[in-house]
Amino acid sequence: MKEDGDPSSELSSSRASDVRVVAKGGAVQLLGQFTQKGLTFVFVAIAVRLMGAADYGLYRQVFQILMVATTLAAGGFPVAAVRFIARARSERDPGGARGAGRVALAGAAVVSSIVFLVIFVWAEKIAQVFAKSDSSIDYLAFLLRIGAAYVPLYGCMQVVRFCSQAYKTMTPSVIVGNVIQPIARYGLSVLALVVGFAVAGMVVALALSAGIALAAGLWYYRRLQTEEERLAAPRMEVGPMLRFVLPQSGVQLFSTQSLGLGVLLV
């Protein structure tokens, strides 16, 4: 029997279920953030000792350039994936849900591939903005080229993570983005340092970690889909999604608080 003033007594069963989903999702996300921050702390301590502050600073510079590029690459497609898949599922439209995931993933793949080509082709011009000598320009351009694959892999991984969130669960998204990708990135980076590949090895490890996380994300997303969604013919709303993505891309582009732009401006 519920007492007067009990907030749960004012909620319908569906709304109470939504509250539980949000609370559980928030807790899972916090746990994932704590895990990622802890791994980052340990990794930085190990990396600086193994390679020195100067080389680690160069690696961070390459990493931040690529992270800014991933913001351009993914754009508003992750948010669009959640919106359109969730809407299709609420309307009991399995074809629409499957089609929304495909359009979001394909859109991010196309845009991020263009960004990849820009970085790969114009690596020297990008390096000239940040490097101080001709030799450092050549090396920074080389690092950008071998790390450019990180952009499409990470951008598509973000879309797949958000696709899974449309199924009212944060667990796959957090596991992929806050556990699998950091563990792969830091583990492969430390291995590269131990073997002797230095900064170049760490940049390659960065790209490989995004590929591993993308594969894990696709596996989770496939598991979350219902049998009807797997078998349904995809119904793709390309125009409506693109109209939604464009303003969202602007929002993502100017959300610079987490991009580490200060590393690039020093």
Write the layout of secondary structure elements.
Layout: H1 13-51, H2 53-74, H3 77-90, H4 94-121, H5 123-130, H6 134-147, H7 150-165, H8 171-195, H9 198-224, H10 227-231, H11 238-253, H12 261-265
Helix pairs in contact: 1-2, 1-8, 2-4, 2-6, 2-7, 2-9, 3-4, 3-7, 3-11, 4-7, 5-6, 6-9, 7-8, 7-9, 8-9
Throw out a few tags for this protein.
disordered C terminus; 82% helix; 266 residues; globular; mainly alpha; single chain
Structural commentary:
The chain has twelve helices and no strands. The longest helix is centred in the first third of the chain and has 39 residues, at 13-51. The chain has one domain (28-255). Helix 3 crosses helix 11, helix 7 (150-165) packs antiparallel against helix 8 (171-195) and helix 8 runs antiparallel to helix 9. It has 266 residues and is an all-alpha fold. It starts with 12 loop residues before the first helix and ends with a helix. Helices cover 82% and strands 0% of the residues.
